[in-house]
Amino acid sequence: MNHLCYQLFSCFGGPPDDRDNIIAATAAANARQSNAAAGASGDGRPEVLLDSRHMAPDCVIVKAGKRLCGSGAVLATAPLAQDKSYFEVKLQAAGRWGVGVASRKEDLAAVPLGNENSWVLRSDSTTWHKQQLGSVDVKFEEGDVLGFSYDHVELNIFHNGKALNCPIIGVRGTVYPAFYVDEGAILDVIFHTFVHTPPTGFTEIMLEKNIL
């Protein structure tokens, strides 16, 4: 049984009991990845999801395009095009992870992100773009919810609703929410119906065709 199958079963929240169950879980994940690529909700409305067309080969997307596990990085299906946008992520399982923004030029198989085309917070509480930019005095735990607000000037980070006051500046070009996992980490993305109230003036990511 390969390692990726075991990681996949962890994504669904259960142990890898037998081969048949793992095969069934793999098929379900593939179906969900197709839905994520389409970017449509159950009733046909377009929505922002994890994008299976822009992810590392060893990533696995489940939970209708809202959970990331495996190894590598993935972008969201929509860029941060509006003036003020906000999204959240829940730390579902510990491991090595990172969250921030990246362009489609980023190598999504090369984790950790924080390189030429990405700006991220890493699981070791540091922020990166080509080099370490700063750090936050927080030890992240399973169940934490991180919020990210972006206004084309700063990418600000929130921990369980509290601002960390460590803005990432200098983001350039068209960027997308970006997430990476490794070493057993699982991330649940939240693009609407947030756990915490966004900062004043910030809203969920809008699809470009809906921006006036």
TrEMBL record:
InterPro entries reported for this sequence: B30.2/SPRY (IPR001870), B30.2/SPRY_sf (IPR043136), ConA-like_dom_sf (IPR013320), SPRY_dom (IPR003877), SPRYD7 (IPR035766)
Domain B30.2/SPRY: 22-199
Matching PROSITE patterns: B302_SPRY
Source taxon at top rank: Eukaryota
Xref: CDD domains: SPRYD7
Entry-linked Gene3D superfamilies: 2.60.120.920
One family name in Pfam for this protein: SPRY
SUPFAM superfamilies: Concanavalin A-like lectins/glucanases
UniProt xrefs under PANTHER family: C13ORF1 PROTEIN-RELATED, SPRY DOMAIN-CONTAINING PROTEIN 7
Protein name (database record): SPRY domain-containing protein 7
Lineage of the organism: Eukaryota, Filasterea, Capsaspora
